[in-house]
């Protein structure tokens, strides 16, 4: 417990903007905040995009007619 008591004031004293500077003109804070949504968008596009392309292929080939009762 003494270690936690010693570390707590240091955590409170840390500045809110601990990361400063920029990379290629973009602030580091913006890069850190944008990394998670960018990764989620990439995964969503990969998963949804492949399914959409597969369905488009079915529609164009006429294979999808059987799914909608158009026999």
Strand order of the largest sheet: 1-2
From the N-terminal CA to the C-terminal CA, the straight-line distance is 73 Å
| H/E series | HEEH
What is the residue-mean pLDDT, rounded to a whole number? 77
Give the DSSP E fraction (strand runs of 2 or more residues): 5-15%
Number of domains: 1
Q: Percent of residues in helical segments?
A: 55-70%
How many strands in all? Answer: 2
Structural class: mainly alpha
* Number of contiguous helices: 2
Largest sheet: 2 strands, antiparallel
Radius of gyration equals 25 Å
Spatial shape: elongated
List the uncertain runs. none
Task: Describe this structure as you would to a colleague.
This protein is mainly α. It has one domain. 65% of the residues lie in helices and 6% in strands. It is built from two helices and two strands, in the order H-E-E-H. It has helices at residues 2-13, 28-61; strands at 22-23, 26-27. Strands 1-2 form a two-stranded antiparallel sheet. The longest helix has 34 residues, at 28-61. The radius of gyration is 25 Å and the shape is elongated. The model has no long low-confidence stretch (mean pLDDT 77).
